[in-house]
């Protein structure tokens, strides 16, 4: 007889090799066929809702690792809340307007100037919709379930209508106004930019110290020394600002006199290489107010004015003031009734108001102005410096401050309400509240108009005199037109056709041509919750840390402005994904990790396991080497699942299940360990601590299960009779733990848990996702665990001595060992309590053990003496004529 055929070896169709790149799409296809998303919604439809509102990614090109990272984090939350019984609908969204799409369309060969606005917008729309479909399929490939057939798009008619109604609500409250003030302007994009669209990067600039000739008899033959890194703004200079309470000095160098702030005198004179400095007078800045100076290269005179914004940290304490090119300059200029001169056009070229510099790009004007100052003798010093400077976040090129008529949303009107709303939000990222609060405190009025074509029109009419008509009812009427006919109607219809029938019409009326800032688009996305009957405010917004200045900010602003409430109850934010060395990913560095390639080669579940294995609150790293480590962790989990499924072959919980109280002590210990694990994992999921989830589960799987419990129970599972009580007790324990682990890991690796669940011979649902998340609970018998801890210390000592015996060639496999063990009273009592004194050979996977009581714990390993059973491979005192032990002989007799 071949005894191998009599062993109850594991049997399962759950394969060792995951082949996730091939298998996952098939699993996802099955989810669609059984309508899994719809099933879980229907199952929980009458329960408490949980709404995670999806921040819309931009619909342009393939998803990158940052997209995959963020969407996976969201899916962890959605799956957990669903399995906790919450009604958890997920409506994915896309941001579909703006400059990048215009650029892509233009790059494809479309001549924007040869088309009408409506024609160009149609092409942009078609491009955006194609990009949405591409990204949709890529997000689904990650394993994310949601209402993919009905996402929200910022180009949808209904979405735009809701957005315009929010705008109308802000108009009604007087928050929207048109004004002329300096704003961020991108010459490369030819559009105004909001602060949220600005990135700071290093830039080289001309740093110059310039002498302005003072025209005042009190300080004859004197020059005011100003410092600037933007010489191109000097054509717009209308004043010089000083701080009223700073001390200034009038000093002489050679034949010329100068004025600077006293605290910077030494620094400035050193920089300008001034020798033999003679101080003539010291006075407060207010002394200089309204004195007149001569512009260095124009026939223009300007006043000295007082400004609290002046500092004495850098420069000279005298600030070149161009109200059309700076925020502080604007406010102080307004106080002194200075005009808003901004001689730069939308492309960054100097206008006729810059006289001889007309037509020069502002950076070329920079160089020419410096040369002219040098020629005239007004240039006191020049150098090139590298400093942090605002850039267009799309084109990565520098922006400028430029005054143009723009539409604004007044932040100052609602700032207190915004700050109060922030206090009512639950923050899961410790610094999140402080960060947003500080941003709001420092935030100026929001520039919401853009000089673009592909966007939501600002639905404002102008009367016959060119004055804007700010009428909520009129704007609501336009919103209704947009909902029925689309926003292209704004450009295709005449003014008369856009007005209500009873509205007085004048042929000289006109309409605004600017579009809304795309942050206004996405910032009103919470309206989709109201439109679709979902709970508002949303329970959670989960996005990258850059959204404190972006979506978190714009959503809060529009919601508080209209509804006086935050659109989110909780905020979770994550860092950026960097390469293995902590560098930003770029094609030029060749360090880009493509999630699509990664999923094809290793699988979405491996990618998801990586997401759950990093501290997402900070910037995270990913590399091929790191993914190998994650793959190894995945392999261990998968192989453990496979073994557990295999040894449950033929186990029917309805007939064979043995309850906790009857299982025997070690089986109860393992069940208790699992309950304790489930408790910790639930708490971690609840607090969005996914790293803690994997840190709890993986050691349990690798150490408690694979290395201990599943290892020592193989003897009983393989060699005992099919219906042996101890074997059924072990199977019952494994069944509980396996089913529990599949549920606990479903938010993280749903494809694998779904596949393993299908391999269970007895189950209650179409998919594990329809199961409820195990809650765990307190230890049923704490004394069991404390006694097990004493045994575990003994086992660790035994494993160490077995390894030493192997190294000394005393034994090969551990079954060849006999152990002489001395234990203290505490350990002895623990072994008795666990009822394993006479089972230590099985539990320690050796052939025999002799235990004696001592005052200390000692382990001695010798070669076991006896005969090897031909069936179970244990060394026993005697075997029968068929070379099997008495246990195996009974099993064999039962098979006859």
Bin the helical content: 40-55%
Distance between the termini: 12 Å
Say what oligomer this is: single chain
| Whole-angstrom Rg | 37 Å
Sum up the overall morphology in one term.
Answer: elongated
Mean pLDDT: 94
Q: Which parts are unreliable, with pLDDT below 50 for 5 consecutive residues or more? A: none
- CATH level-four homologous superfamily name of one domain: Valyl/Leucyl/Isoleucyl-tRNA synthetase, editing domain
Description of the structure:
It is a single chain. With 896 residues, this protein is an alpha+beta fold. Among the domains are: 161 residues, Isoleucyl-tRNA Synthetase, Domain 1, CATH 1.10.730; 196 residues, Isoleucyl-tRNA Synthetase, domain 2, CATH 3.90.740.10; 83 residues, hypothetical protein PF0899 fold, CATH 3.30.2320. 40% of the residues lie in helices and 18% in strands. The chain is built from 30 helices and 31 strands. The strands form nine sheets. Strands 5, 6, 7, 8, 9, 10, 11, 12, 13 and 14 form a ten-stranded mixed sheet that branches. Helix 17 links the parallel strand 23 and strand 24. It is elongated. The relative contact order is 0.11. The model has no long low-confidence stretch (mean pLDDT 94).
């Amino acid at each position: 007889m071949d005894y191998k055929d009599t062993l109850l070896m594991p049997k399962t169709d759950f394969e060792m090799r995951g082949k996730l790149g091939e298998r996952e799409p098939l699993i996802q296809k099955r989810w669609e066929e059984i309508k899994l998303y719809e099933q879980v919604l229907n199952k929980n439809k009458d329960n408490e809702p949980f709404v995670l509102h999806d921040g819309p990614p931009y619909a342009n090109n393939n998803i990158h690792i940052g997209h995959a990272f963020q969407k996976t984090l969201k899916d962890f939350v959605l799956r957990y809340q669903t399995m906790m019984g919450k009604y958890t609908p997920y409506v994915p969204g896309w941001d579909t307007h703006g400059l990048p799409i215009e650029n892509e369309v233009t790059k494809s060969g479309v001549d924007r100037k040869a088309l009408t606005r409506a024609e160009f917008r149609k092409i942009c729309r078609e491009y955006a919709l194609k990009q949405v479909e591409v990204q949709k399929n890529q997000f689904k490939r990650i394993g994310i379930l949601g209402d993919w057939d009905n996402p929200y798009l910022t180009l949808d008619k209904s979405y735009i209508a809701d957005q315009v109604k929010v705008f109308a609500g802000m108009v009604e409250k007087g928050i929207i106004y048109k004004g002329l003030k300096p704003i961020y302007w991108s010459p490369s994009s030819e559009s105004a930019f909001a602060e949220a669209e600005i990135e700071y990067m290093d830039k080289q600039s001309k740093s110059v110290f310039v002498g302005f000739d003072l025209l005042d008899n009190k300080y004859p033959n004197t020059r005011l020394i100003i410092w600037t890194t933007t010489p191109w703004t000097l054509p717009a200079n209308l004043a010089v600002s000083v701080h009223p309470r700073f001390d200034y000095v009038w000093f002489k160098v050679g034949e010329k006199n100068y004025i600077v702030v006293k605290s910077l005198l030494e620094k400035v004179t050193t920089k300008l290489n001034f020798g033999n400095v003679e101080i003539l007078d010291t006075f407060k800045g207010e002394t200089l107010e309204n004195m007149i100076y001569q512009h260095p290269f124009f026939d223009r005179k300007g006043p000295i004015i007082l400004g609290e914004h002046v500092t004495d940290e850098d420069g000279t304490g005298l600030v070149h003031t161009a109200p059309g090119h700076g925020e502080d300059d604007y406010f102080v200029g307004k106080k002194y009734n200075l005009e808003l001169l901004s001689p730069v056009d939308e492309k960054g070229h100097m206008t006729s108001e810059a006289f001889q510099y007309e037509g020069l790009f502002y950076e070329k004007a920079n160089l020419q102005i410096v040369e002219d100052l040098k020629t005239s003798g007004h240039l006191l010093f020049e150098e090139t410096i590298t400093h942090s400077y605002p850039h267009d976040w799309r084109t990565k090129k520098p922006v400028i401050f430029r005054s143009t008529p723009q539409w604004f949303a007044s932040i100052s009107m609602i700032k207190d309400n915004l700050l109060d709303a922030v206090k009512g939000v639950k923050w899961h990222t410790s610094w999140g509240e402080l960060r947003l609060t500080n941003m709001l405190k420092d935030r100026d009025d929001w520039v919401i108009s853009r000089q673009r074509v592909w966007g939501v029109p600002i639905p404002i009419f102008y009367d016959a005199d060119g004055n804007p008509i700010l009428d909520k009812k009129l704007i609501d009427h336009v919103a209704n037109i947009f909902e029925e006919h689309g926003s292209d109607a704004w450009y295709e219809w005449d003014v008369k056709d856009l007005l209500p029938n009873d509205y007085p019409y004048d042929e000289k009326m006109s309409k605004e041509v600017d579009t809304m800032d795309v942050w206004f688009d996405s910032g009103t996305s919470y309206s989709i919750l109201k439109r679709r009957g979902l709970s508002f405010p949303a329970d959670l917004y989960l996005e990258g840390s850059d959204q404190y200045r972006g979506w978190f900010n714009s959503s809060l602003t529009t919601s508080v402005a209209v509804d006086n409430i935050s659109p989110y109850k909780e905020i979770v934010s994550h860092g950026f994904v960097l390469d293995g060395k902590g560098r930003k990913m770029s094609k030029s560095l060749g360090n880009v990790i493509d999630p699509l390639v990664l999923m094809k080669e290793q699988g979405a579940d491996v990618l998801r396991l990586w997401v759950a294995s990093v501290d997402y609150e900070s910037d995270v790293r990913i590399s091929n080497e790191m993914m190998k480590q994650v793959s190894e962790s995945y392999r261990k989990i998968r192989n453990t699942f496979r073994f557990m499924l295999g040894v449950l072959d033929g186990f029917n919980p309805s007939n064979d299940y043995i309850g906790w109280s009857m299982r025997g002590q070690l089986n109860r210990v393992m069940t208790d360990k699992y309950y304790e694990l489930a408790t910790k994992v639930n708490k971690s999921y609840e607090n969005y601590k996914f790293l803690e989830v994997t840190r709890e589960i993986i050691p349990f799987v690798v150490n408690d299960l694979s290395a201990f419990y599943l290892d020592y129970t193989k003897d009983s599972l393989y060699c005992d009779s099919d219906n042996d009580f101890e074997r059924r007790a072990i199977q019952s324990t494994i069944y509980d733990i396996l089913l529990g682990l599949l549920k606990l890991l479903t938010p993280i690796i749903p494809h694998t848990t779904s596949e393993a669940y299908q391999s269970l011979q007895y189950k209650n649902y179409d998919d594990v996702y329809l199961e409820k998340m195990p809650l765990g609970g307190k230890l049923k018998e704490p004394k069991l665990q404390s006694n097990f801890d004493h045994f575990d210390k003994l086992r660790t000592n035994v494993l160490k001595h077995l390894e030493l015996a192997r190294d000394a060639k005393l034994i090969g496999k551990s079954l060849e060992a006999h152990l002489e063990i001395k234990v203290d009273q505490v350990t002895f009592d623990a072994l008795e309590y666990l009822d394993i004194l006479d089972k230590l050979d099985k539990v320690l996977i050796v052939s025999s053990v002799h235990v004696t009581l001592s005052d200390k714990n000692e382990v001695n390993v010798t070669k076991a003496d006896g005969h090897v059973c031909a069936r179970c491979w244990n060394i026993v005192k005697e075997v029968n004529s068929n070379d099997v032990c008495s246990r195996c002989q009974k099993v064999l007799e039962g098979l006859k």
